[in-house]
Structures are given as structure tokens and as C-alpha cells.
Write a structure and sequence with these properties.
single chain, 523 residues, seven-stranded mixed sheet, five-stranded antiparallel sheet, 18 helices, elongated
């Protein structure tokens, strides 16, 4: 059940039933309307929702402008917004017919094409994963599985209302659909695939930053659940796209497409990203075919890439442009080196003594990088530091974001032909390091030191643990304490610059969980 459903009190349940009774009476009345009248009423319900739900109308209009703003007029976008509400109203009336009326009558108006693609997928003997979306009447799509001859399970997010969730689940199961709650999905999905069933997953909703990957969707990065890709790679089950479209005269057409070819890079993360990108492109193409039939009221782009991810994307996608821009700014360093205006930079990394008579403890193995300074680079790093304070999740992810920004910036410098201006070192057993031949100018020093611990930093909450199981992620068996130092450094010709890095002056400290087993603690 949803979070509120688990905590629902007897009083709240009783009130919910009282509120649902008049809705049930209205649903029965809508279910037995002649289909022409029912669809007309559905369109009027959509018009009503368009005016009484200004918040959802604004979300839908903003989504449409994000997706089509460059190619469609404002009046056309307004028409699409209005038509999407009307489509949803007709879907509500048809769902009433599914729940309270003659299911066979409604299913008789559904045509199915491409069943041969299901047969080819079933021949693998690993079950079938279905890719679909909130497009057309998706509840009718689930009920129409009877036309294919294959049993169906669907992974759903339970509704927040326990009473309403039980009611909807009952009507879905009435049509022979097995409902698998998202929070307990892994076991149910495994069992359904073992039996050779179809398992449907709707992949057009916003995903949290941890559960999703950012892939292009209408030209913008959208956080998309990686669950379908992970399940396909783990089970070997083929992924078959299936969508339903409303047609004229109250009919619907279910289109079953060939299975999506799996990626074969051998890198799990790259395979998940490539698979999910392919899924997103398929969903987008179907939405473009019938845009008024998609659920635009959902905040699809709610989760935004972190500042580090945006910076990384800019560096990777526009690397050549950045390299050209860097070429001019790097000229001063090259000129200083040409004139012989160089110096040495040395330093030490240590932990300060914990007692008055104690001695500093050297921090051996710390990575030192000296880079030409750039306002944008420093700004991105400072943004990560600021956001790391917002939540535990951002704190845990800050170390990885800093690393990605640094690697992308170094890559851009090398693309600019300035590999010799990237100075690196590792502290020795005494915690010392030295960089020679550094041209005069403004630099930024980045240092990173990690300590590996054998035990996880804290007990994982139940919801987090269940989510990890669904995503097929191994449980963390340890964690790394990652300490960063960031220091602007001014190098003058002929001198020697000295820096000290110790545990009392870190720029940022984060925690990175270990996903591998058998972690050995650092002495």
C-alpha cells in the first residue's frame, strides 16, 4: 500500500467509503450509457476538469510547451491541452464501463495487431516484459490482454488511499490481471517471468534521482526508471513495446511492436543507459503520433539533473566548443612557461594530533591535481558543496559529482591540447607531494583522500532496502569516507609554493557506499 494507505485509521477508512459511495453510484450510471452518449459525457467531464483544476492545467500546458514549443503555435498547444483533458474524461467513462458494466462489450471494440511479436518473444522461454505508457486508455490495454492468449501481470504504484487502492486492484484482478505493488515488485516479477507470463511496466513517469537515469525525452533530460532495463538484463526476457490508441467510432487499437534489441557493450551501467534511452525514444515516438492521448498532467520533468550532471553534460556534449574557449584562456600559462616563469609546488597531507603530545598522522595515497583555474569550473564545484547540505542523498552523492566534474574538466583541457597543464601527484607514506615546473599564474588545487570502512555507515531504512531489491542493486557492504580539499593557488616565478592539507581544513567531506562484497578496511 502507499504511505498514507499503510497509516489509514478506521475513521479515515470509514470516511473514504462514505465518499466513494456516491462516486460508485455515478460510475454505475456512466457504465450503462450508450457508448456515444458516454463519450460525449466524458468529453464534458474533461472540459470540467480543465477549468476546475488550474494547477493540473498549468502543468499540462508547461509540459506541452517544453515538448512542442518550438514547432507549434500557442493556440495549437492550447488545443492539445484541452483535448488531453477530454481524452482523460472519456477514459474515465470507459473505466467505469470496465468496472461496473459489460467488460466484453467494451473489449469487442478493441483491435489487436502484432500478436506474432509476442509469440516470437515467448519462444525464448523467459517470460515477456512489456514496455508501455499512460497513453490512450491504459486500463483498457491491460484488460485487452485476453485477446493475446498470454496471462498478464502489471507493476503499479499503490494509491495513497487504502480504500480506493483496494477497489481499483479488485477491478483490475476481475479482468484477470495480476497486480504487483511496486514496493514488493521483485519477487512478483521473478515469479511471473518464471511462469512465462507477460509483465507490464509503464515507463513514462518521473523517477527519483536514485531510481532513474537521465535520458533524452522530447529533447530534454528526463529522469526515467531503470527498473525495466535492469530486469531485462538480469532475466534475459525480451522487452516488447505495446501501446493502445483511441480511434474513431469509439474503437481502440492495440499495437504490439517487435522486441527491443538488447545492448551488448558488456558494461552494466552503459547497457542500462542505452536500454533506457531506447525505451524513452519508443515512448516519445508513440506520444508524437497521438499527443492528445498522453497524460500531460503529470510533472514528467520534476526531477532535474544535479548541477554536476548538467556541467558534465555540457562538457561532454559541447566538448569541442569548450576546448576552443579554453584555448584562449590557456595561452597565458603557455606564455609563462615559454618565458621560463615556473615554480615548484609542494605540500603535505595529514591528520592533526588528537592530544597535546601527539604527532600528526600522514595521509598517504591522497590524489593531488593542479588545474588551470576557470570561474565556471569553480562555480560548479561550489554548487555541489552547497547542495550537499540539502539532504542525505545529496551528501552521499557529492563525492561522485565532484569526481565527474573534475574528470570532465580535465578532459576538456586535454581536448584543448593542454595536457601538460594538468599536474598530478599522490602523497607518499609521509603524506608529502611535490609538483615541479608549474607555470606562473592562478591555479586550483584539488586533493582527494579516501578511507575504506568495512561496515555500512548506518542501517538502511526498510523503504530504501525494498527499493534496492527491486532495482537489483547489491546491498552495500561498506563505505568510503571521502575528503576533498580545494585551494586556489597563486604561483609566482622562481619561488616555491607550500600548502598544507589536514583534517581540520577540508573543503568537503562525503560518504560513498560500497556496492561490492568483501570490503577490507583501510589500516
Amino acid at each position: 500500500m502507499g504511505r498514507n494507505a499503510e497509516r489509514a485509521s478506521p475513521v479515515s477508512r470509514a470516511l473514504a467509503w462514505l465518499l466513494l459511495r456516491p462516486l460508485a453510484v455515478l460510475g454505475v450510471a456512466l457504465a450503462y450509457l450508450p457508448w456515444r452518449w458516454g463519450l460525449w459525457v466524458g468529453r464534458r467531464l474533461g472540459d470540467l476538469g480543465y477549468w476546475v483544476l488550474p494547477g493540473r492545467r498549468a502543468v499540462a500546458r508547461a509540459n506541452l510547451e517544453r515538448a512542442f514549443g518550438g514547432g507549434r503555435s500557442r493556440s495549437e498547444l492550447g488545443r492539445l491541452c484541452r483535448e488531453s483533458f477530454r481524452h482523460l474524461g472519456m477514459t474515465v467513462v470507459e473505466c467505469c464501463a470496465l468496472c461496473f458494466g459489460s467488460r466484453s462489450t467494451l473489449l469487442s471494440r478493441v483491435d489487436v495487431e502484432g500478436v506474432d511479436h509476442l509469440k516470437a518473444a515467448a519462444a525464448h522461454g523467459r517470460g515477456i516484459l512489456l514496455l508501455t505508457a499512460h497513453l490512450g486508455n491504459w486500463e483498457l490495454l491491460a484488460a485487452a490482454h485476453v485477446h493475446t492468449g498470454y496471462p498478464l501481470s502489471v507493476v503499479v504504484r499503490p494509491l495513497d488511499s487504502a480504500v480506493l487502492d483496494r477497489l481499483v486492484t479488485r477491478f483490475r484482478e476481475r479482468g484477470g490481471v495480476e497486480v504487483i505493488p511496486k514496493r514488493r515488485a521483485l519477487r512478483g516479477v521473478r515469479e511471473a517471468l518464471r511462469r512465462g507470463w507477460m509483465v507490464g511496466i509503464l515507463l513514462d513517469q518521473n523517477a527519483s534521482r536514485r531510481e532513474g537515469v537521465f535520458v533524452p525525452f522530447f529533447g530534454e533530460p528526463a529522469s526515467t526508471s531503470k527498473s525495466l532495463a535492469l530486469l531485462a538484463l538480469w532475466s534475459g526476457a525480451p522487452v516488447v513495446p505495446v501501446f493502445i490508441q483511441r480511434e474513431k467510432e469509439g474503437r481502440h487499437r492495440v499495437t504490439i511492436e517487435p522486441a527491443v534489441p538488447p545492448p551488448a557493450t558488456g558494461d552494466r551501467e552503459q547497457d542500462v543507459l542505452a536500454f533506457t534511452t531506447a525505451f524513452s525514444q519508443i515512448v516519445e515516438s508513440r506520444i508524437r503520433h497521438s499527443p492528445e492521448q498522453w497524460f500531460w498532467m503529470h510533472r514528467r520533468w520534476r526531477t532535474r539533473p544535479a548541477v554536476a550532471a548538467v556541467a558534465l553534460a555540457l562538457l561532454l556534449w559541447g566538448g569541442s566548443a569548450l576546448a576552443q574557449e579554453l584555448t584562449a584562456s590557456l595561452a597565458s600559462y603557455r606564455a609563462a612557461a615559454g618565458r621560463g616563469e615556473v615554480a615548484a609546488l609542494s605540500g603535505a597531507a595529514f591528520m592533526e594530533p588528537r592530544s597535546p603530545r601527539g604527532a600528526p598522522t600522514p595521509l598517504a595515497g591522497a590524489g593531488i591535481v593542479l588545474l588551470p583555474t576557470a570561474p565556471g569550473f569553480l562555480g560548479d564545484l561550489e554548487a555541489v558543496k552547497a547542495h550537499a547540505r540539502d539532504s542525505a542523498a545529496r551528501y552521499l552523492g557529492a563525492a561522485g559529482e565532484v569526481k565527474r566534474i573534475q574528470e570532465a574538466y580535465e578532459r576538456a583541457i586535454r581536448q584543448a591540447g593542454a595536457s601538460d597543464l594538468v599536474f598530478t601527484a599522490v602523497t607518499d607514506e609521509a603524506g608529502r607531494f611535490e609538483l615541479k615546473g608549474v607555470p606562473a599564474g592562478e591555479w586550483v588545487l584539488l586533493a582527494r583522500h579516501e578511507i575504506l570502512h568495512a561496515k555500512p555507515p548506518k542501517k538502511i531504512p526498510h523503504q530504501e532496502r525494498v527499493s534496492r531489491q527491486f532495482l537489483l542493486e547489491p546491498q552495500p557492504s561498506g563505505y568510503r569516507t571521502v575528503t576533498f580539499w580545494l585551494m586556489p593557488v597563486r604561483v609566482a616565478a622562481g619561488g616555491e609554493v607550500r600548502v598544507e592539507l589536514h583534517d581540520r581544513n577540508p573543503w568537503l567531506t562525503g560518504v560513498a557506499e560500497e556496492k561490492t562484497q568483501g570490503v577490507t578496511p583501510t589500516p
